[in-house]
Amino acid sequence: MTSNIVWHEGKVSYQDRCKNLGQEGLVIWFTGLFASGKSTIAVELEKELIKLGKAVYRLDGDNVRHGLNYDLGFSKEDRDENIRRIAEVAALFKDAGLIVLVSFISPYKNIRDFAREKAGGKHNFIEVYVKADIDTCAKRDPKGLYQKDKKGEIDNFTGISAPYEEPKNPELVIDTTKLSVKESIKQILNLIIKSLSLHC
Predict the structure, then answer these.
(1) Which of 53, 66, 78, 164 could form a disulfide with 72 if both were Cys (CB 3.0 to 4.6 A apart)?
(2) Considering its fold, how many domains does the chain have in total?
């Protein structure tokens, strides 16, 4: 970073923005294997939060790679940079007072910890581990990636040829082999409402 860059303070605080929206900023970070159900849950949760009158925005892995992160591949270095950029964007949305739904595989603990720190720590960050075994994910697979991996057509496929570091202490575990989307949403909404009521 060049020494000519300095932080420029404004006259509107984070508290001002939250007061204007009537809510605290919050990052809900969905992590899990490909096809575990992260995006499906995030889409439905966004709809429910809008119904409740909340200001919310969803950041999805594939969507972001169409634009902001179109230049990144799937090496560990590129995956880390992918999540680093998203963590920065999510922190900006949170600072604006929005509830941000982030659904990325985000396989490495250190980069998920970085995302938590950028969001402001435990008061502004909820890690949701969307859990499903490999066989279940392969059956759901909307893009046929598990089959392509079996044929050797994909390198660094998370959970098979590349690691996935399972979260040890997430705020919530959603086992999508046992819970429906509706049941999953209910659990997450309860946690969000509890978190917002504690810190507003």
Answers:
(1) 78
(2) 1
| Inside any domain, residue 15 | no
Task: Please identify every residue annotated as catalytic.
Answer: 106
Residue 96 lies in a domain: yes
Which pLDDT tens digit goes with each residue over 150-192?
888 888 888 888 899 999 999 999 999 999 999 999 999 999 9
Residues in the chain: 200
Question: pTM here?
Answer: 0.91
The pLDDT assigned to 200 comes to 46
Tell whether 29 is covered by a domain: yes
Question: Which residue range forms the structural domain that includes residue 186?
Answer: 23-199
Say if residue 134 is exposed, middle or buried (CB neighbours under 10 Å; 0-12, 13-18, 19+). Answer: middle
Which DSSP category does 175 fall into? E
